[in-house]
């Protein structure tokens, strides 16, 4: 699945915001019972490769559970520390004054072939290289590439033990 920052702003270029997102993904994973097989945080969007378990809620609920805490923390932080920056998050909606994430569910796709799963993981990991942010996928901090390559843990533990379970 892929979801983006409001108006494609580079909100995830800030370490603090990436930490909030990592914490939120971990909390959502434990609350809603899904496996995380791959991820990358880009400056303006996120890719996650997940496998909802039998009793998991919908993808929309998973996204909401991940995104809402990050948006709330970012808005509260800016309100307290840099109110002028809130202008980047201002919407024209009366009921929602600020927005951290782009409206909508993002993009998700069901994968049912192992080859497609591997392609998705490679695409996710190579995103920072394609965008000129790293020379090799494992150099990008907020990515699962290092853990897949040589076991180097990233900011979020992935569920490698579940990897082939759906096949």
Classification by helices and strands: alpha+beta
Question: Whole-number radius of gyration?
Answer: 16 Å
Q: Cα distance, first to last residue?
A: 19 Å
Chain-averaged pLDDT: 89
The helix fraction, in percent, is 25-40%
Beta content comes to 5-15%
Low-pLDDT parts are: none
Which shape, going by the Cα principal axes?
A: globular
Sheet having the most strands: 3 strands, antiparallel
Elements, N to C (H/E):
EHEEHHH
Spatial order of the strands in the main sheet?
Answer: 1-3-2
Oligomer: single chain
Number of strands: 3
Number of domains: 1
CATH class term: Alpha Beta
CATH topology: Alpha-Beta Plaits
CATH homolog superfamily: Transposase IS200-like
Output the number of helix runs: 4
Question: Please, could you describe this protein's structure?
Answer:
The protein has 167 residues and is an alpha+beta fold. The protein has one domain (2-166): Alpha-Beta Plaits (2-Layer Sandwich). The protein is 38% helix and 11% strand. The chain contains 4 helices and 3 strands. It has helices at 15-32, 59-81, 114-130, 145-150; strands at residues 2-4, 34-41, 45-52. Strands 1-3-2 form a 3-stranded antiparallel β-sheet, sandwiched between helices. Strand 2 and strand 3 form a beta hairpin. It is globular.
């Amino acid at each position: 699945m892929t979801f983006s920052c409001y108006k494609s702003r580079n909100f995830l270029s800030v370490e603090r915001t990436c930490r909030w997102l990592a914490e939120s993904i971990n909390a959502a994973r434990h609350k809603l019972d899904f496996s995380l097989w791959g991820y990358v945080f880009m400056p303006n969007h996120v890719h996650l490769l997940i496998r909802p378990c039998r009793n998991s809620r919908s993808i929309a609920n998973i996204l909401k559970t991940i995104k809402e805490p990050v948006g709330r923390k970012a808005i509260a932080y800016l309100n307290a520390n840099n109110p002028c920056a809130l202008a980047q998050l201002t919407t024209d909606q009366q009921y929602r004054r600020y927005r951290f994430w782009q409206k909508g569910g993002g993009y998700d796709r069901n994968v049912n072939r192992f080859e497609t799963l591997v392609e998705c993981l490679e695409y996710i990991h190579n995103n920072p290289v394609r965008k000129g942010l790293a020379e090799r996928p494992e150099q990008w901090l907020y990515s699962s590439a290092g853990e897949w390559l040589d076991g180097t843990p990233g900011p979020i533990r992935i569920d490698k033990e579940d990897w082939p379970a759906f096949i």
